[in-house]
Structure formats: structure tokens, C-alpha cells
Design a protein that fits this description.
Layout: E1 7-9, H1 22-46, H2 55-79, H3 82-108, H4 118-133, H5 149-159, H6 168-195, E2 205-207
Antiparallel strand pairs: 1-2
Helix pairs in contact: 1-2, 1-3, 1-6, 2-3, 2-4, 2-6, 3-4, 5-6
């Protein structure tokens, strides 16, 4: 069991009855996705997977972030009309890219002249890999989109190169059985709460490290 402490995520609007733009919803979702991706990395480290500081750290984060944005986009497909979904997902990708960029530059410094910026690397990766995730489906019979076996397995496959060779054989099982379902559940909950017009009962939601 992981000893990573729980984090607190705001998933309700202060005035839930007021209409929110897709960009506002994307900003709140982007905040959640960043925190959940960090928690996933910490949980993986707590399960004795070596994710080194530096490029391996950000390679892992990029892959998890792309996966979570792809999940959020599929959830948005079920909740929003086409134009709203496009606006939401576009703003979400840009929000996550900016957050990643700031963190990567702070920790690793600005790229050398002529090298791609972290923001652009993430956007390029999303544009490439989201199409792959688009080939996978959801679990049948669910009230909302939940990634199917192949969807989750592909995330594990994408994460293998970010880990040392001796840990790669276990990452798919860890991701499919534990980390991805936990992370997906938080993204699902966040979009439900952000779209809800019901009065708030709780101000924050916890992401458990258990």
C-alpha cells in the first residue's frame, strides 16, 4: 500500500448554478489533471518503480497527462455538443501544456537555442498520441466513459520507455490494475462536479494515496 498522502482537489464551482464557459471548465479540469498526474508518479515511486529526476520524470508526466486529457476529451464527447467539446479540449491541452512548461523550465532550465520548448513538445505529443487512444473504446454498460482494457494497456505500454529496463515488465500490470483506474475516477468525478448545477455539499475532494 502506498504511503503517499492524500491531496485535496477543488472540484466544485463557487456558484454552481452560474453558466461556465468551456475555457473555465478546462482550466479547472487542467488543474485536477496536473495534480492527479503528480500523484500517479508519486504512487509509482511508492510502489518501488524508479522514475529518475530530470528527463525521465517529465517523460513519465507527459505520457500520463496525455492519457488523462484523452480521457477527459472522451468524457466531454458525452456531455457537450461538438463545438463546446472542441473548445473545452483545446483549452485543456493548452492549459496542461503551459503548466508542464512552467514546471519543466523551473526544474531543468530553458531549452538550448533551437531545441523545442516543453509546451510545444507536449502539444505535439498530444496531437500524435491522442489519435492512438481514439482507436480504443470504453467499458460497455457504464453510465459514463471509462477506458477499456486496450486503452489502459496502451498507457502502460507508453510508460515502459520512461522506466529503467528492470522495471518495465511490471509497469503495465501496475498501471492497469491500480494507477490508471484511480486517476480516471478522479477525472470522471471532476467533470461531473464541474458540470453539476446542484448545491455544493463538500468544498473539496480528496485524492487518496492508498
Amino acid at each position: 500500500m502506498s504511503n503517499v498522502p492524500a491531496i485535496r482537489l477543488k472540484t466544485h464551482w463557487f456558484k454552481p448554478g452560474a453558466p461556465k464557459t468551456p475555457e473555465q471548465q478546462a482550466g479547472a479540469m487542467g488543474f485536477t489533471i496536473w495534480r492527479v498526474a503528480l500523484q500517479t508518479l508519486k504512487r509509482m515511486r511508492g510502489a518501488d518503480f524508479d522514475i529518475d529526476a530530470g528527463e525521465p520524470y517529465f517523460a513519465f508526466m507527459r505520457e500520463v497527462l496525455v492519457f488523462l486529457v484523452a480521457v477527459a476529451d472522451r468524457l466531454a464527447h458525452d456531455r457537450f455538443d461538438g463545438a463546446t467539446r472542441v473548445a473545452f479540449t483545446t483549452a485543456l491541452v493548452l492549459h496542461v501544456a503551459d503548466t508542464l512548461h512552467g514546471n519543466e523550465v523551473d526544474l531543468m532550465g530553458a531549452p538550448a537555442p533551437g531545441q523545442p520548448q516543453p509546451r510545444d513538445r507536449f502539444i505535439d505529443l498530444y496531437n500524435e498520441v491522442s489519435g492512438h487512444y481514439g482507436e480504443f473504446g470504453g467499458v460497455a454498460g457504464q453510465d459514463e466513459f471509462s477506458p477499456d482494457f486496450s486503452f489502459l494497456r496502451y498507457l502502460g505500454h507508453r510508460l515502459e520507455p520512461t522506466l529503467p529496463p528492470e522495471h518495465r515488465r511490471w509497469v503495465i500490470d501496475q498501471v492497469m490494475a491500480i494507477e490508471a483506474p484511480e486517476a480516471v475516477g478522479k477525472v470522471q468525478q471532476t467533470l461531473r462536479d464541474l458540470c453539476s448545477t446542484a448545491p455544493r455539499r463538500m468544498r473539496h475532494s480528496s485524492v487518496s494515496g492508498d
